[in-house]
Amino acid sequence: MRVDQKYAVWLRDDAARAFLGLDTEQPQSRWVVLGECTGEEGGVGFWLRIDHVEQWIAMGDTRKIAVSPPDCLIPWAYVITIQAVGNFDELKVAGFKPEPSTAAAPKRASRRRS
Asked: DSSP secondary structure string, 2-63?
């Protein structure tokens, strides 16, 4: 990760709840931590100066959470994926659109009767 680059860091649900100290009994959510990289700890994780955390409960339904102090070590084991962003307003999730399969259906083996 590049120091001074802004990132959107997507965390596993259980990891985000542990990181924020939240109730684990609530329905699962998508979690994204928005911040700027300030360094790395070899093999452990990376330091992020957190702007805010977003909990995506459902499409279009988000909750912003502030973190204090803002400089936090994010363990690599917590991370699903990371996106580099120019500014935090660029982050948009439109969902996924299923496409019909183009793969041919598997052929069934024929059996000969004797």
From this structure: -TT-EEEEEE-HHHHHHHHT--SSSPP-EEEEEEEEEEEETTTEEEEEEEEEEEEEETTEEE
Q: What is the pLDDT of residue 96?
A: 46
E strand or H helix at 64 = strand 61-65
Domains within the chain, CATH numbers bracketed = 6-87 (2.30.30)
Position 47 scores a pLDDT of 97
Q: Report residue 38: phi and psi, to 5°.
A: -115, -5
Taking residues 88-102, report their average pLDDT.
Answer: 58
pTM flag (> 0.90): no
